[in-house]
C-alpha cells in the first residue's frame, strides 16, 4: 500500500511536470507564476514523500504488531487445546469415580444385609446352644439318677443274695434237725414269711431295673434328638455320645438283640434258683410296663419291645393299661390302640384316633382314605407304616425287621454314609419294617434322587436281609487289615471304609467319602462299582495315574478275585453304562406310592421294592468264597433289573 501511494504521487508529480512544461511552452510570459507553482508543487511533493515514509513506518509497525498478535494467538490456541485435554481427562476420572462410588455403595448394602443375616443366624445359634445346654443338663441329672438307682439296685441284690444264703442254710438246718411234731406249724409260718419277703424283694428289684432302663432309654432319645436337630453341633454331639457310649450300649441299637443286660441275667438266675426252692413263686412286674406275668425266658426290657420312640416321654404309671399282647388286636380298646400308636412313633395322630377308633378292629378294617380322613394321616409313608404294622398282626411269624425302630434307622443312615437324609427319614418315621418294603417311589418321596444313593440303600438293605436284620451286623471298628474276606468287607460301614483308605496311605482323600453312600455292601455287591468309581468319588484327578493304579491294586485285593472277575465281566458286557455320581432316578408315570391294596399285593409285585424280600442271598454273604459265575446278578443295578419302572438320566449339563 505505501509503494502504490508513492507511485501515484510520482505519477502526479510527473504529470504536473509535463503540464508545467506545456504551460511553459505555451506561455513564456507566465514563467514566474509557473516557477512559483513548481516550487509549491515540489514542496507538496516533499511533503507527500515525507508522508509516504511516515506511512511506510506505520505500516511496518502495524505488521510487527500483527505478527506479535498472531504468535500470541497461537500460544493461546495451544493453551486452549491443552486445557480441553485436561478437562476431558477430568471428566473421565470423575465418571470412573462415580462408578466406583456406586459399586462401593452396592457392596456396603450387601455387607449390611449379610451382617443382618449373620446376626440373625448368630441369635438362632445362641438359642439352639442354650437349648442344647439345657438338654445336656437334663442328661446329667438323668445320669445321676440312674447312678443312684443302680446303687439302690446293687444294695437290693446284695440283700437278695444274703437272704438266699440264709434261706439255704435254714433249709439245710431244717432237713437235718427237723422235728415234725414240734416244728411243722412254725416251719410253715416261717416259710410263708420268707416267701412274702422274697416276693417283696424281687418286686422292688424289678421296679428299680425297669426304672433304670426307662431312664437310660430317655437318655438315649435325648442324645438322638440333639444329634438329629442340632446337626451343626455334630462335633460336640459326637464327643458327648462317645462319653456316654458305655452307659447306652444295652439300648444303643433301639432293639432287643436277644441278649439281656448282665443285671437282667443275674435277676433271672436269682428267680430261677428261688423257683427251684419254692416251686411256683411268680414274679410281679412292679415297673408297670406290662400287666401280665412272663416266664423268665420271655423277659423284655421294660416289659415290651424296647423302642426308643415317643413313648419314652410317658410316665411308668401310664403304661399300666398297656396292651395284652396275647389278646387279638381287633379286641384292643381305644386307649390300648392310642398307646400303641404313641409307642409306634405316630403320637401326633392319637387325638383324632381317640375320637374315631372304637377298638383295634376299626384300624384293621379301615382303608387308606379313612386313615387320611378320620385320623388326618396325609403323609403317605405314615400311612404305609401304619398299614404294614396292621398287616403284621395277622401274620403268625414275627418279622425281625419290626424290632428296628426309626431311631435306629437314622443311625443306620450314618453307618452307610448317607447322613444327609436323616431328617427326611426321621420325619417319615421310616423303621426296619419299612426298609424291608421300601420302593423306588418311597425313596424319591424322601428326596433320594441319586442313582448311586439308591444302589447304596439297596445293597445296605440286602446286607440286613442276609443278616436277618441284626442291628449290630455292620462293622464300624477297624480290625486286621491283612486278614479281610469279602464276607467281612460286605459288612463294613462307611467309617470302616474310610479307615481302610487310611491304612492304604490314602488318608487325605478319605474325608471325601462322607455323605457318598459308600459302604462295604455297595463295594462288594454292586457289579458296576469298581476302582474307577471309587477314584471318582474320592476326587482323585485323572492325571494322577500312579495314585489311581495304587487304589485299583488295593481295591482288587479288598474285593477278592471272585468279585473282581464279576465286575470285570460286567464292565466288558455289551451295553454297559458306567456308574456316575450325577445319574438321577425317575419313577414310572403311574400313581405315586399307592398302598391301598398292600394286603392284596400279587406275588410278582415284589419287583416294586428297592430290595425284594425273596431276593437270593449271595454266597459271599455266607462266607463261601466259591460261587458260580454271575452270582451277583441278583444285585444288578436298579436300571438293569427294572427298566420299565426306573430310568437313568445322564449327567447334568
Brief characterization of the structure:
This protein is an all-alpha fold. The chain is 61% helix and 1% strand. It has a domain at 416-649: Transcription Factor, Ets-1 (DNA polymerase, domain 1, Orthogonal Bundle), CATH 1.10.150.
Describe what this molecule looks like in 3D.
Residues 332-396, 409-467, 492-523 form the SAM domain. Residues 243-266 have a biased composition (Polar residues). The protein has 653 residues and is an all-alpha fold. 61% of the residues lie in helices and 1% in strands. It contains 22 helices and two strands. The protein has helices at 2-26, 31-176, 180-229, 234-243, 245-248, 262-278, 334-343, 350-356, 360-364, 368-374, 380-394, 406-415, 422-427, 432-436, 440-445, 451-466, 486-489, 494-503, 520-525, 531-537, 545-572, 638-641, and strands at residues 584-587, 646-649. It has a two-stranded antiparallel sheet with strand order 1-2. Helix 1 (2-26) runs antiparallel to helix 2 (31-176), helix 2 (31-176) runs antiparallel to helix 3 (180-229) and helix 7 packs antiparallel against helix 8 (350-356). Mean pLDDT is 75; it is low at 1-5, 228-322, 595-607 and 616-653.
